[in-house]
From TrEMBL:
Co-factor(s): Zn(2+)
Protein's UniProt name: Quinone oxidoreductase
Record GO terms (molecular function): mRNA 3'-UTR AU-rich region binding; NADPH binding; oxidoreductase activity, acting on the CH-OH group of donors, NAD or NADP as acceptor; quinone reductase (NADPH) activity; zinc ion binding
InterPro entries assigned: ADH-like_C, ADH-like_N, ADH_Zn_CS, ER, GroES-like_sf, NAD(P)-bd_dom_sf, QOR-like, Quin_OxRdtase/zeta-crystal_CS
Classification via CDD domains: QOR2
Domain Enoyl reductase (ER): 11-323
GO cellular component, one term: cytosol
Keyword annotations: Metal-binding, NADP, Oxidoreductase, Zinc
Database matches in Gene3D superfamilies: Medium-chain alcohol dehydrogenases, catalytic domain, NAD(P)-binding Rossmann-like Domain
PANTHER family: QUINONE OXIDOREDUCTASE PIG3-RELATED, QUINONE OXIDOREDUCTASE-RELATED
Stated family: Belongs to the zinc-containing alcohol dehydrogenase family.
Residues spanning the signal sequence: none
SMART domains in alphabetical order: PKS_ER
Length: 325
């Protein structure tokens, strides 16, 4: 038996229970891994609260990213062996000391990257990769707006976008978070608690607006994000930490300048094994070179996950957060 965190019913952080589970042995196409560290993400909150429907029947083990060591593999797994250092960002089930996982969802972690760091950046780093390199491919000279710039994805995206040659504008909610974002690639960071971010973006861009807005906040920023775009600009809604965007008149996109709107998800972009490996290798390479710094802002014991969720929802966290089994 090993320890895991399970959800038996949707609700607040109190529904996260720390209990014993049995892992079993890996079947065909599976690997048995021991988690060294587990990433904490707002996605975990969405499943806990029921905002996203559970992919399996309850009880559910949440968590979408982690890193550890392979203990055993199924008989038909050829490219992994016991002792390999690996990381992953899907499927759900990371909040456990050990787990079984499809072997084709694991990527090998270079020796230059600590497993704790790898666990903290798989979901967030690959999210930044698909947003900046695929959904709207950022190029030199583009001006972008990235909400929640001091969050886990935001800090990675700021550095990556700057590396690509963009002018990078962010939003954050405190002086501490603004300073953090400015230290991670952002040219300008707007305090959304004291400034009107739409007016400030127009001021910074000479009234032109930005080429793309990356918005993981949702309801509270949606209308303003549209108003920040240049004609034919793109709004990329990839999260909803403030709640889902209400239904709206599609014609608003034409009236505001023939705008583009998309709601992508990471797991579609990395569904193919080749896409997962290519994205992870690009991320690992930039981290190994020091182009992107991955700094863990908070660490919690896995048994204290309820506290971690409360802090995340109260916006008391910055950067990446990991749980240690």
């Amino acid at each position: 038996m090993v320890k895991a965190v399970r959800i038996h019913q949707i609700g607040g952080p109190e529904v996260l229970t720390y209990e014993d589970i049995s892992v079993g042995v890996p079947g065909p196409g599976e690997a048995h891994i021991r988690n060294e560290a587990i990433g904490l993400n707002f996605l975990d909150v969405y499943y806990r609260t029921g905002l996203y429907p559970s992919p399996t029947a309850l009880p559910l083990i949440p968590g979408h990213e982690g890193a550890g060591v392979v203990l055993a593999v199924g008989s038909d797994v050829k490219d992994l062996k016991a002792g390999d250092r690996v990381a992953y960002t899907n499927p759900i089930g990371a909040y456990a000391e050990e787990r079984l996982i499809p072997a084709d969802r694991l990527v090998k972690v270079p020796d230059s990257i600590p497993l704790k760091q790898a666990a903290s950046m798989m979901l967030k780093g690959l999210t930044a990769q698909y947003l900046l390199r695929q959904t709207y491919p950022v190029k030199k000279g583009d001006t972008i707006l990235f909400h929640a710039s001091a969050g886990g994805v935001g800090l990675i995206a700021g550095q990556w976008a700057k590396h690509l040659g963009a002018i990078v504008i962010g939003t954050a909610g405190s002086d501490e978070k603004i300073k953090l974002a400015l230290d991670h690639g952002y040219d300008h960071v707007i305090n959304y608690n004291t400034e009107n971010f739409v007016e400030r973006v127009k001021e910074l861009t000479g009234g032109k607006g930005v080429d793309v807005v990356y918005d993981s906040v949702g309801k509270d920023t949606f209308d303003g994000s549209l108003d920040c775009l240049r004609p034919r600009g793109m709004l990329v809604c990839f999260g909803q930490s403030s709640g889902p965007v209400p239904p709206f008149d599609l014609g608003i996109l034409s009236r505001k300048g023939s705008l583009y709107l998309t709601r992508p998800t990471l797991f579609v972009y990395i569904a193919a094994r080749e896409a997962l490996v290519d994205g992870a290798n690009e991320l690992f390479d930039l981290v190994a070179k020091g182009t992107i710094r991955i700094e863990i802002g908070q660490t919690y014991a896995l048994k204290d996950v309820a506290t971690a969720h409360r802090d995340l929802e109260a916006r008391r966290t910055t950067g990446t957060t990991v749980l240690i089994p």
